[in-house]
Structure formats: structure tokens, C-alpha cells
Amino acid sequence: MPHPTNLDTARSVERIVRENGGIPATIGIIEGRVKIGLEPHELERLADVASNPTVVKVSRRDIGPVLSLKKDGGTTCSSTLIFAALSGIKVFATGGLGGVHRGGEDSMDVSADLQELTRCSVGLVSAGVKSILDIGRTLEYLETLGVPVVSYAESNDFPAFYTRRSGFQSPWHTSDPQSAASILRTQHQLGMSNGVMFAVPIPEAYEEVGQEIQKAVELALREADENGMSRRGKEVTPWLLKRVSELTTGKSLPSNIALIENTARVGTQIAAAYARMENNSNSGGSQPSLNIAFNPPKHTSDDPSLTPSPVDSPAKLVIIGSSAVDITSQLPKEASLTSHSTVPGSVTLSLGGVARNIAEAAHRSLVASSPASSHETLLVSAVGQDSFGRLLSEESRQIGMRTDGFVLTSTARTAVCNMMLDSDGGLTGGVADMDIIQSLDTATVLDTLENQSPSLVALDGNLSEKTLSSVVRSCNERGIPVFFEPTSVAKSVRILSAMDANTMACWPVAFASPNLLELAHMYRTAGEMELTQSNAWWQAIDAMGLGSEYRLSLEQLARRDASDRDQTKGTLSFLLDRGVAQMAVHLLPLFQHLVIKCGDLGVIVVFRITANPDSKWLNERSNIHARQVVAHGQPGSCVVVKHFPSLALDPEVVVNVTGAGDSLVGSLLSSLVQTPQLFEDLHALDTAIQQAQKVSTYKTIVQDEVLIIKYSRLQSKLYKVHWQSLRYYNSPCKEMQVDPAFPLHFKLQFNLNPEAKQ
């Protein structure tokens, strides 16, 4: 495909895979390294051949030379099959398979793709073979090689790339992903080394134009014979496809895109079905359980459970702040505490601490997007050399998180919060031993930042003012954006010590995520510290150019319902009545982006675009229907106020939202790591905020004899407790589904016996 259509299609295909519950792994070669999953800039690099003319087409024969000579390469079906098989990928979706060229009985021009299907146990999903080839001889050759050919349709008709029927028949057909996945898995269980070809017809909407395109194919083939192109090996296919596009005045390109998007959709459905089969077969003995081994305390630094895990790769995201162990005691119904005595009840133990919660959420979100991202999140936190410290380290390792950021100390206890709840879950008292965070050595933190060179640093409000100021200053010098989570009303203003009104040329902190109370306290304190009275602050406010049009749009937004589904939540009038918009705008010279958590009223983002002519917001206008106000100031700049309603939850569902704010921030951080210019793209921002809102929900529903658990990986501890209980009552998992829109989320269904139901 021509550039940039090829790049747009690659992005579209990856989006389709995610929407259908899969993880896209576009395969290519960059500087002699095989990439199973390409970063956005790598996709652009391979797509723009004009700017990168050294990119080569890589078949099996080319792999050794291309890797050795450090070349860039686009992989053919044969080499992609090899790399997919090596990395354990079971399904590979593409446009069209190579095959026997016309006249191949004389020229011996047969694609290496066919032979590779005999060596790689991978399901290849395509729109058949390219229509420029000899389809009949290709099918005959695949039969000789022993490769199953299955039409993914209601009949055995084999497709012809641009048209749904070629006139040839496949030996088999199926039209559902479960059957296709079962074919693949059966071959794998038998130890067979060959793959399977699934031929998916182009969508019916493109059938009519396909007939016209096929005539152009025949003409292009005749021209190739006449001008000698048909004898030029791997140059033939690109030339023919380009010529067909010319002859059809571009009509073949939309068909080409449609068939590739269709095979990606079908391929993902087959892959998801295969994964469910694998999970169900393993569920009998591999359920996760919570096994916590408590060893006698050791006060020596050579305790192996406290030894940080070494990681060679630098972290892209560093999160600095508190880690803690939460111990929660709850009284049963109709029970009360009496002096000098104990009562029966429940005691649970879990990991906590704002920075740790955020780090786990970010880690799980990144790994859900790409398993290769397991090393990209680093938590820097003070941990004592005691049993609670060992628990933090061991549980972090089990999650897959790095522990090389733990700063061990023998002079302070690991942070512990011991809470006592009444039977309704209300807090009646407790003890918080959290002093260790003040012992976090600033020099050690700065050394970690220098060694890691992350692309984003997040701080929680538990840190001392000295540490916050030093880290912000260091990040500003290195050009690393800072994200601040205020933690509490009292601690929310500690970050203001990092602001210098006299030298402030721009925002020292790129992102902050206060709730409404924290925002108000930060606003008042900034005024008391005269941070909102400096010349630099006034210049920034003047540059925003907020006038009567902005005020009018804001008033219109304030009249909108906070939720389109639940009018009992009222309107967004708090934006004006409580001065939320004004306070946020006044803080924009200090914080470029504010993500304001409003509880069940949703999320408000207020941010400022400056000197970025490429920002998509510059072409936007205020749109009350879309819940956004866009005020344009100096050229290349604007201020955005946008509301995201809270998620809809069924009233009969039990919801646990403990740590929801931390989970939201962690998910948002993962999105920023993957898309640094996230706030410049309105559609990407919408997706990121909705994902962040969704990660904090955890729901259970009992229907008759069935328990349905909807959970996020971020609530894995809750999920493990449920699973452990159900194993005890011998109620196995019946079904697991992945939420197609949000791969972090799962729905599990259990059959309940009477004892388990009770």
C-alpha cells in the first residue's frame, strides 16, 4: 500500500485486534532485531519507505543476512510464520498468502509461504491467496504438503482475495471461531508441526467492485508477461498490486484495506477462543491462590527475600512514594468491642500505600497492553528490614513488579496501617505506622532517576517537601515531566514548595490529580504563598486570553447534567458555584494538566496547550454536547475544560472501590508512557480516561446457581480470595471472558453448589 495508507491501516488493524479482546503483535525487523510488536515510531519507520529506502522485503532466505547486516525489514508470510511460531503466537492474520505463480509449472515460481506452513504450527488467517496467482495449483500444492485449508464461511467456496468465490473449493469449512480454534488446538495436542490456513472471504459490501478489480488483475498479468516483469522474482507482486490500483483508479485500495481489517477481526476471535480453551484446560490445577509465608524477622541486609531484583532495562515510568501493608479487622453483625477483651471477626491483609497502589495499577495496565512491558514501571519506596518488608517484596515479585527500587532501611519499620471497621464497614479506629517514608534518602532517589532516565516520574504527597523539591528540580533540568498525586488535603500542598514564583518560566509540574477538596486547598495555599501573584504567573494567565466567549461556554457546560443516565446526580453547576473551573485555571501556570477526581460526578480535566501547532485541540471548538470547552489564546495555544461522566453501575451490583483514585492514576500513567502526547489528541484522551475510570470497578452478581465475578486485574487480591473460597466449596470456574474494549477486565462465571451459594 502507498504511504500513509499503509500506516493508517496498520494502526486500524491493531485497534481492531484490541477491540476484539486480543493483543496486537505486528511483526517486523528494525536494525537487525526482530520485533514481536512494534512501537508507534517503529511502525512509522517501516511504513515510510520514501524516507527509509533501505527497508527490504524479508522472506525465509533473507532472515540471516538482514539480521546480520542490521537492516530494516518488512516480513513476508513465511518469515512472519517463523517468528510467530518461535514466540508462541498461535494465530497470524494477514491479507493474502503467497502461492504458485501463473505459469509456475514451467518457471517453478512458488512462494516460500506454502512450504513454511508445513514447519510452523500457526493458524494463518487470510483472504485466500493473492488473486494474481494460480489459485487451483496453489490449493493442489497445499494438499501435497499436507496443510489443512479451511474456508471461514458457510460453504467450501475458496475466496479469491478481492472476490468471495474463486471457483475452487476448500476441503473443509467452518464459520465460528470456536471450531477454528479447536482445529488448531487439536493439531497442537497431537504434536503436528504444520499450520492451518483459514481463508476468509472479503466482506460482501466489496463483492461487486471485486469483479471489476479481477478484470484489472487479468490485464495487469498480461502486461507483466509482455514487459518481462513476470520474470523478476519478488518484485512481481508489488508491481502487480500497484498496477491493479492504477487500472482501477484506486478502487482496489479500499478493498485491500477492508479484507485485511476483516482477517484481523476473525483472527482475533479465533485467538481469543484458543486462549479460552487453554485456560479452561489448565484451570483444574493452576488457580491462583494467596500463599503468604511468614518467616521469623531478620534484621540483616542479606535476607534474600528483601534483596532487590536486578533489572538491566531502564524503567520508562518511575513512581516515588509510600508502600504499606494494610491490616483490616471487621466486627461481625450485632457485635461490639468491649474493653480489655477480643471478639470474633474477620482480619484481612493486603498491600497498600498510594505510590505502591499506583505502581501496581500502571504495571498491570502496561503488561496488559504488551507483556514485554513488565520492566517499564519502577516503584521507589522505603521498606524496612522486617517481616512486613519481606511480604511487600515477595508479593511484588509475584505480581511481576520490579523490586530494585525498594530502599531498605534497618532503622525504621515498614509502613503498616491497622484499621478497625464496624459490621457495616465504617472506620471505628486504628493505628497508622507510616513514619518510614520520611527516612527515604533524597540522594538515593536522585541517583535512581539518573540511572534510569525515565520518560515520566510520578510522586505522591507522602514525600517530604525537601524530597519533592529536589526531584522536581532534577526532572525539570532533565526535561522529564512530573505527575503529582496529592494523596490528602493536608499533604496536597507539599508540592508547592517546589515552585519558585520569581524564576517560574513555565509549569514545574506537568500533571496533578487532585480531588475537589485537594484542589481548593492547593488553590488557597498557592495564593497565600504568593505563587499566583508573580509576573510569570500573570504573563501565563494573560496568554490564555480567556474572555466572554470562554465564560459563556463554561456557563452552558455548567447547566449540563453530570450524568446522562442518572439525573439525581444534578448538574455540573459546581464548576461555577464552587469555583472549580476558576481554581483550576489559576493553577495552570503551576500544573499544565489537572485531572480532577469528582467522585460519582466523574472526572474533570483542565489543561493548557502552548506552542504546539500540531495539537489536534487547535482545530477544536467548544462543544457542550461533547462536554468540552476550548478557549483559544495566543497562536498555537488553548485552554481545555472537559468533563467525563462517571461509569454506569447496575444498582443490584455490589461494588468495592477501595483505592479507586490510585487505580485511576496508575492507568492514566500507563497511557502517558505509551502515548506521551496523550493530552494533545482528544480521541486518545477519551479512551485513556474511560480506561482509567473502568479499572477501579469490581463487581459480583449471584444469579440462581451461578456466581458472576466482573473484575479488573488491579483487584487481583479480591479475585484471589473469591477463587480460593470457591475452590474450598468445590465450585469450579465454568467460563472466563475478556472485555473486548478493555483487556484489563475479565468476567468469570462459576457454577455454585448449595453450600458455596450460602
UniProtKB/TrEMBL annotation:
Cell membrane as UniProt keyword: no
Keyword Phosphoprotein among UniProt keywords: no
Residue numbers spanned by region Disordered: 279-311
Domain of life: Eukaryota
GO cellular component: cytoplasm
A Pfam family hit: PfkB
A Gene Ontology molecular function term of the record: hydrolase activity, acting on glycosyl bonds
Annotated Polar residues bias: 279-292
Residue ranges of domain Carbohydrate kinase PfkB in the record: 316-495
InterPro entries reported for this sequence: Indigdn_synthA-like, PfkB_dom, PsuG, Ribokinase-like
PANTHER family: CARBOHYDRATE KINASE PFKB DOMAIN-CONTAINING PROTEIN, ZGC:136858
The protein's name in its UniProt record: Carbohydrate kinase PfkB domain-containing protein
Organism for this UniProt entry: Steccherinum ochraceum
Species classification: Eukaryota, Fungi, Dikarya, Basidiomycota, Agaricomycotina
